[in-house]
Specification:
This protein is an alpha/beta fold. The chain has 12 helices and 14 strands. It folds into 2 domains: 239 residues, Type I PLP-dependent aspartate aminotransferase-like (Major domain) (Aspartate Aminotransferase, domain 2, 3-Layer(aba) Sandwich), CATH 3.40.640.10; 102 residues, Aspartate Aminotransferase, domain 1 (Alpha-Beta Complex), CATH 3.90.1150. The strands form 3 sheets. An 8-stranded mixed beta sheet has the order 3-10-9-8-7-4-5-6, sandwiched between helices. The longest helix is centred in the last third of the chain and has 24 residues.
Length: 421
Amino acid sequence: MARGTVKTAYERLIDRQLLVSNGPAGTRVSDNLPPQAADMSRISQQETVQAPGMIGPGSPPRLFQLGVPAQDAFPTKTLSRLLAQAGRKAALLPLSYPDPRGEPALRREIAAYLAVARSIVCHEEQIFVTAGFTSALGLIIETLSPSPYRAWVEEPGYPLVRAALALKGVQAVPVPVDANGIDVAFGVKNAPDASLAVVTPGQQAPLGMTMSLARRRALLDWAVSANAYVIEDDYLGELQLNGRAAPALASLDAGERVIHVGTFSKTVSPALRLGFMVAPSRLVGEFLRRVMFLSPAPAAMTQIAVCSFLAEGHFLRHLRKMRRLYADRRDLLGSTIGTPLRDRKAGGLALVLPLPDEADDAAIARRALGRGLGPSPLSSWYTDPASARSGLLLGFTNMTPQSAGRAWRDLQDVIADLPRR
């Protein structure tokens, strides 16, 4: 071995204080060695916190998977061009800290879009750009109240909302939904001291019904009387496949109790990690203080690209195209399945496939992953396992005539092979 190599090794060990050089007296191992490092070979990839049957992050989309847009209809060329342009614009920005609320131009475009598409009249100062829905949810919970406190959640409802509330020390109170949306009277009776409600009034997740006007007014009346706030998760936005989308709950909010949260994850791509929230004017200062120090808006380049996507009309054209495409794919899946979905219910961008109560839908979903499928177990959307219904949520956004028949046959095989609970 070369002398230089040995010398370099000794020097590095001395720099790390593992060896001590005493000149002519020699070099010895230090008497104060640091604690033994962890055995890296025993460290495995951390498990991702997720509901049973949900696809882990970074995995390619699977047939029947929820929450992913159509891969074959993604506006690749347009967004690639806009991202390249945005990269050049971002490089020319002043070398200073950007507005923590998000790029002003993007907030103006979002305000204009909300006024036209969701009937929300708001000022750009009320809009905060976030890294998706979960980022907005964390910011809202952090701002509204010290923990612990109680929050109404829809039953069934988005599992990650319950998980996020628990991490913040908030007790989630399940409130059942029916054909008119969340049962406000049940919530008032069983959790009158709640100070927050998280709802999906446009298209309930996962069952897909739209909250009725009477329920909306009852929910807003409760929020005012209880000095509570309502988080409106508008996760599908304008992607209403039957008729026009109902106006947002926030459009009726004269008492300034609704915090409207939107995202581009379902309408464009979850990879953007871009969403927004509209704060009531009384909370703008509180939110601004927190985003300034704890949760500033994502990188300017993505914001600039999405701003151009909105300003040039690409977003509205893309939504119109996706509504037609998803309606066709919903009908395709329904006709492929046939009799089992004779009375099928559409849950937003998924069909609900009921299963016998004794069927283990979580086990079916796990086994389906091995077949390259990604259905979501309906039972995982319930807070109380005892009252959970068994079923599968079948996303149809990536269903094609070439894949529908094979995917349904594979899923039937999985269902037939698994024993009952």
